[in-house]
Every structure is written in structure tokens, then in C-alpha cells.
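Task card 7
Instruction: Convert sequence to C-alpha cells.
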Amino acid sequence: MRYRVMNLTRNTLLADQASRADSFMQRFKGLMGVTDLPMGHGLHIAPCTSIHTFFMKIPIDAIFLDASQQIVDICHAMPPWKVSRVYFGAKSVLELPAGTAAASKTEAGDRLSFEVQPS
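Output:
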């Protein structure tokens, strides 16, 4: 299933080809081994309060969200082999290509929406 992710606060599109990782194995694997994450793609991991980029080959923007899809914090261009801090208020994280958050002027406090894309 694919999702369209909008920043409702800024009325900007963050991804039109985001997928969701909600099982243990999907969350565990995440984007490990991915060598290219094109603009418009992303991964929404739920539940999640912290991430690592071990075994990843590319930097990512990690957008931590609370239960109402409001942004708690953003890790910009998080490089491989790093660990984020724990965001106790977060319920999920949206992983996007590095630079997406800055290019869209997405900030903590903004609210996102996830719309299922037709197959």
C-alpha cells in the first residue's frame, strides 16, 4: 500500500510514494540496504520513538510524529551508522530522502496527513 504524505501546515507534498512499516520485521528492516531513495518516496514506521541508520547506505531525513501526526522533531540528513535520541512524545517516524524537510520548509509543530493512494 502506498501513501501520499502532505504537510498540512505548509500545504506541501512530502511524498507521493511512501510505504508503511508496521510489523516487527518491516520496522526492523526499514531502509537497510537501500542504495537510492528517490524524491517522493519514503517510509512511515509505526510504532517508533527512535531509529538507527546501521547498515544504511544513504542519509535520510527522519521526521518524528506524535499520535495526531504533528511533528515532534526532525533529524535532518541523518547519515548512516547513527542513532537518534529517543522521542518519548513520538508514536511514529517518517523517513524521507535527505533534504526533503529543508526544501519543503517542514518544521517541528507542523501537522502531516497520510492518504492511501489507489493501487
